[in-house]
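To: structure desk
From: M.T.
Subject: fold request, one chain
Message: Could you run this one when you get a chance? Sequence is below, nothing fancy, just the single chain.
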Amino acid sequence: MEQFQIEQLLMEQEIHFLKGKTAITKATDDIFAGVTYANAGEYVYTVSEEQTGWTALANNIDTLTFDTKTYEMHVFVKNKSQGTGTYISNVYFVDTTAGSTTAATAKKQEILKQEQKVVQKSINMICSKINILKSR
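Reply: Done. Structure tokens follow.
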């Protein structure tokens, strides 16, 4: 078989595989593997795509568009309820281009409201136990 026929056959197989799909995505490995946090709190990182490591196939039959935006990655870390240590409770990304700070503020407020509900529930439970003890 000639090189051209082999390439054509491979392209036909790839097209069959991709039929009906609008995008191909690739997930990354666990970016937090091996990461530990000594203290609870919010950690903010600047994240952008490294625009290296990709080469076009022969005859430039494919393309790749890199994301040129920069993002903030917000990591919320909490103390474990039993024992020592911390854990990651929430992670979200914010596009730092113009106008995106509104979305970031809304997301952060949503997370803080959830946290307030958890704290209020704990306070209510403690108060309930105190009332039970007082009534004895």
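Reply (cont.): The two ends are 91 Å apart (CA to CA). Let me know if you need anything else for the meeting.
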